[in-house]
Amino acid sequence: MAQILKGAPVTEALTQRSREEVLELKEKGIEPCLAILRVGERPDDIAYERGAVKKAEAAGVRVHKVVLPGDVSQEDFDCALNELNEDDSVHGILMFRPLPGQLDNERARQMLAPSKDIDGMTDGSLAGVFTNTDTGFPPCTAEAAMEILKYYEVPIKGTKACVIGRSLVIGRPVGMMLMHENATVVNCHTRTIDPASIAREADILICASGKLRSVGPEYTNPDQTVIDVGINWDEEAGKIAGDCDFDRVEPLVKAITPVPGGVGGVTSTMLIAHVIRAAQRTAQNI
Prior knowledge:
By secondary structure, this protein is of the alpha/beta class. Helix 2 links the parallel strand 2 and strand 3. Helix content is 42%, strand content 16%. The protein folds into two domains: 87 residues, Rossmann fold, CATH 3.40.50; 125 residues, Rossmann fold (3-Layer(aba) Sandwich), CATH 3.40.50. The strands form three sheets. Strands 1-11-8-7-5-6 form a six-stranded parallel sheet. A three-stranded parallel sheet has the order 3-2-4, with helices on both faces.
């Protein structure tokens, strides 16, 4: 039976560390602030916002909300985003996407200041991931996967890692982050020939294909650690499930994250950790 790598203990440890870091910053006269920029009243945005606010409050981070009407003009949206970019009291900006049809999503992504891009969506942030420098921040899901590996003391240096997926949200960034930790990394994707044979050789398997239960026993080996970042709705079972076929894979591997209860909760906690890291960078420049 595999070790179940639950996200809750990782989240608790990260939140406690964040509380301590916030107190240190406040002693220096800096109050970490998360700005939330939301357009309209999409239920999924509101639900995520509610969770982010709760996480921020738990860590002692101030939240500043900017809610624009669903029919906001490009000019007014640009103005609101620029104000947050230029506001020195705001350290991180959470901008919900996709934006309504009248707004340019790519323009908004590029307008966001990388120094405040806590969700790792700008080109500047992604460049920082690839160069391993403090330019912006990694995508939260990618860093959440790394935090779970580190919390449970899963060896990374010198190991073989396989990432199923090559998106800019998780696949490519987490592959690069594993490489920075001295793993040998292979990214598999929709054009990879026989990905299962490649995955079977891996010590660490990151499942990020975005396809329900697409990773089965043929991808695994008994010494493998599986990190499943997939969040898919299983209509037949009526519940959320991962990219990995958990029930079939769990008995065959060394360790595995559950879905739900694994990477997801850590991802939203990383968002707050990035706000605090941005505030720390501000403190260094004073």
